[in-house]
Amino acid sequence: MLRSTSGEMAIEVLDVSKNFGGKQVLSNASLAVPQGSFHMLLGPNGCGKSTLLRILGGLMHPDNGDCSLQQPVGFVFQNPDHQVVMPTVGADVAFGLGRFDLQERMVREHVQRMLQAVNLEGFIDRQTHTLSGGQKQRVAIAGALAQCPKVLLLDELTTFLDGEDQRGVLEAVRSCVGGPDQVTALWVTHRLEELDWADSVSYMDQGCIQFSGSPRDAASYLKRLGAHV
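Request: output the structure for the sequence above.
Response:
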């Protein structure tokens, strides 16, 4: 069951389970993420990370257990082509802002602020088909931020990225976390090299959370485990 929370924890997951066609994908998974933090959910492919994220995003229902999140929530998918759908960057980031009843000038100013937040200042009139994969991901992040979320759910954003694009996306998310609005990010990844970007880390395997702690403690835990994420 998905509930709203307003306490010190931006995200709380308690004993969540999910079964697909007889396969237990999540098994009594529990997680707590403080507000205003960058929390990394790390684990091998197929361990249940994305399923848990989709449950938190309201895209599917758990079989058992409870979830609580601060509202509203923004979701950014692994493939930006599934999310960046408008011809220009500005139009894409502004998509959905009509519900706020803003004047055109105010919309443009808001979009420019969101693009500045993800290091894409000056891209507002750029054609989206000309962007690199990393730039598209940052446009998707800006679009999610434009809706003023309290929680960002981020699903394997750097899977197809390397080098400068990978770093650019991580920097964009890192810069948006905390601040006056106390935005919280839950970053799902299988890439061990991204560990140090987080404030805190949870390691998932076989459908449940095996460890939660600091990036340093997570690195020690994974070394003892001999994990190759």
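Residues 2-85+148-225 form a domain with the Rossmann fold fold (CATH 3.40.50.300).
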